[in-house]
Every structure is written in C-alpha cells, then in structure tokens.
Automatic annotation (TrEMBL):
Protein name: Uncharacterized protein DUF1097
Pfam families: DUF1097
Naturally occurring in which organism (per UniProt): Pseudonocardia endophytica
Residues that span the membrane, as ranges: 5-23, 29-50, 57-76, 82-103, 110-127, 139-159
UniProt keyword list: Membrane, Transmembrane, Transmembrane helix
Origin superkingdom: Bacteria
Coiled coil start-end: none
Length: 174
C-alpha cells in the first residue's frame, strides 16, 4: 500500500475513533480533539519515531506548563497590557527552555503553550484549575499525550506494517 493511502486510512479512522470517544462516552473528561491532533502532528514533525516521541512530548509538556503559568499570572490582573506582557514574557521563557536538550524542539513547546493559553483565555478557565473537564493543564496534558502516543506513535507503527516498512521508514516519509 502506498504511504499516503495508509496514512489517510489509519489516521482518518483513528481520528473518527478519538472524536467519537471525546464527544461521546468520554465527553465528561473534556479532552480536546484539536490538541490531540496537534500532539500527533508534533510527533511527526519531531521525527515520527521513538526519539521524536520523547522530544515532542517533553516539549509539549513544557509548553503546557508555561501556558498554565501564563494563565495563573494573567489571572492576577485585568490590565490588558500587563496580560500581554505576561504572554510575551512566558513566550520567552518557553523558548529559552530550548537550552535544555530535551526541550529543544521549540515547535512542540509552541503547540503546548498556544493551545493551553488559548483554551484558558477563551473559556475563562483558571490556570489553578487542574480538574477534568475544565482545567487547562490537565485537559491539554491528557489530550497531547493521547495525540503523541495514540494518534501519532501507534498509528505510525500500524502504517509501517501496512506499507511494509518500520516506524523509522514511515516517519521519514511523512
């Protein structure tokens, strides 16, 4: 089977399953479909293999942590300019995280930061809320882990079997 066909089938069907679960039986958890897809995209962008999974998830979590801190600090003021300064300052912090080798996949940090901050700012959720289904940190963390491990890594293994290649070969072609 050709790689684009295998990718379309496997990730498309996994997307159906994840969307059904998130919007149906698991709706009470508040997991966020876009964050799961972004987690999978992050996995593939980081190399699409086991090393890429580690790098992607570490960067995603770092971004989620920084996004959560941003929400906590932004919640301390109603001044729009100060909120903007907090966002800019925490953006600098998550980028500086790239000085740590495990966190040097900056796009992964951007993905985690942006989705967490957006989720909190657009829903009015507090950065200090760590519950499901409303806590930005917890919702994004679980959604990204499912994206990286399930929609990304597991699907890449299945795609590799369908095209007769290992995960590394599949990842290199994506």
């Amino acid at each position: 089977m050709k790689l684009p066909v295998a990718l379309a089938l496997v990730i498309g069907l996994a997307g159906v399953l994840i969307s059904y679960l998130y919007l149906g039986p698991l709706a009470g958890l508040g997991l966020f479909v876009p964050a799961t897809f972004i987690g999978a995209a992050s996995f593939f962008a980081a190399g699409g293999d086991l090393a890429g999974l580690k790098k992607s998830l570490a960067a995603n979590v770092w971004g989620i942590v920084c996004g959560t801190v941003t929400l906590i600090l932004a919640g301390l003021t109603t001044n729009t300019f100060l909120v903007a300064v907090v966002i800019g300052g925490m953006t600098a912090v998550f980028i500086l995280g790239a000085l740590v080798p495990l966190l040097d996949f900056v796009p992964g940090s951007v993905f985690g930061f942006a989705t967490t901050a957006a989720f909190g700012l657009l829903t009015g959720a507090s950065g200090t809320d760590f519950s499901l289904p409303t806590g930005p940190f917890t919702v994004m963390l679980l959604s990204f882990v499912v994206g990286g491990l399930g929609l990304g890594y597991a699907c890449s293994l299945l795609v590799g079997k369908l095209v007769g290649a290992g995960a590394e070969s599949t990842a290199a072609a994506t």
